[in-house]
TrEMBL record, chains A, B:
The keyword 4Fe-4S does not apply. GO terms for biological process: 'de novo' pyrimidine nucleobase biosynthetic process; 'de novo' UMP biosynthetic process. This is Orotidine 5'-phosphate decarboxylase. The keyword Protein biosynthesis does not apply. The active site is at 58 (for ompdecase activity), 60 (for ompdecase activity), 63 (for ompdecase activity). Belongs to the OMP decarboxylase family. GO terms for molecular function: orotidine-5'-phosphate decarboxylase activity. It catalyses: orotidine 5'-phosphate + H(+) = UMP + CO2. Substrate binds at residues 9, 31, 115, 190-191. SMART domains: OMPdecase. Residues 3-206 form the Orotidine 5'-phosphate decarboxylase domain. Pathway: Pyrimidine metabolism; UMP biosynthesis via de novo pathway; UMP from orotate: step 2/2.
């Protein structure tokens, strides 16, 4: 079964809590990023943790090992259950995040490809494969790969085996839920749910796709 | 003249204010990162802005263009005067940070190389040159390149011309201040100052090197 992860990319704590309250019965996990955390403070994690779903810090951590470690420690102390790190800063930086995550009983996922046009400048074919290999070598729990490029997801699956694939890009960015669902473990959907007039119904509509 | 930028990588607002208070007459700029901001809140920027020095958010921003834009908006609204972004996420992501910075009257710097061992996995020779070219094309104000590898700094200078080079890695990481100072615009020093028994004196010792 493919899980549904809500990318809660709203700008205020009030909006985040409102959308989470409306959608939590129909989603499997929540992911938030720096814009919400910078505006609300890291304590927004404690509020969202009340919905008792995995809560992922999509911070795309991209610093030296010691700074990555300090960032990850803040994340897990704040109540998150997982963290997303960039991989291009190399093995020691990724390992720092993985180690903190696992010591906290949490998960760490490595970005291999992204779904915006500029991602092809440095992170396209070849590099993404090496990043997926790095994720395996560092004992990460999975990778992030774009739903907008299913053929790439298939190529990366060959490398990571049974580790998780989390895929953004469904909905507003044009990725097809039906096409990508069978290839991945978690479908990340944001705007199509939180910008919907009826977020609960929108989330439910993806729940059906999950069982494809 | 090479400027001295203090990397204020302490963990609490109290420590940050204490070190800044002791060293501000001897430094030209302050740089802080996510560990301090996640622990103290973004409002620590307003406190540090009181020292009337350029204040740089070393967030190594590494997301899609829209998220980069939102992060940069938070940064400049909080009182920072500059932001550091990764370049690896490509042209549109870098441009998003540069645009917000320049609209706010601030600066944006692009990481081309880093000084930890893992940086060589994906960001070594060749890639760093392309990242420096990207910084120029995106009209960024400068780049970050490691003081631990002066020969690389020289190679990157050929690409960026008169744009600024900010260099970490002096002091605790082994880079030689005397060797790197003539090659760069801003020397980033952290632990050698804030972990010193006499931070003011330590900062002053680098002030001498600035005039090399």
């Amino acid at each position: 079964m493919t899980e549904l992860m809500l990318a809660l990319d709203v700008l205020t704590r009030a909006e985040a809590m409102d959308i989470a309250e409306k959608t939590y019965p129909y989603i499997d996990a929540i992911k938030i990023g720096y814009p919400l955390v910078l505006g609300s403070g890291l304590s927004v994690a404690r509020d969202l943790a009340e919905f008792d779903l995995p809560l992922i810090a999509d911070f795309k951590v991209a610093d030296i090992p010691n700074t990555n470690r300090l960032i990850a420690e803040h994340v897990f102390e704040a109540g998150f259950s997982g963290i997303i790190t960039q991989g291009f800063t190399g093995r020691d930086s990724v390992s720092a995040c993985v180690d903190v995550a696992h010591n906290a009983g949490g998960k760490c996922y490595v970005v291999t490809e992204m779904s915006h046009p500029g991602a092809l400048d440095f992170m396209g074919e070849g590099v993404a494969e090496r990043l997926a290999e790095l994720a395996v070598e560092c004992n990460a729990d999975g990778i992030i790969a774009p739903a907008t490029r299913p053929e790439r997801v298939k190529a990366l699956r060959q490398i990571i085996g049974s580790k998780k694939i989390l895929s953004p890009g469904v909905g507003a960015q044009g990725g097809s839920a039906e096409e990508i669902a069978p290839l991945i473990d978690s479908m990340i959907v944001g705007r199509s749910i939180y910008n919907s007039e009826d977020p609960a119904k929108a989330a439910q509509s993806y729940s059906c796709v999950r069982d494809l």
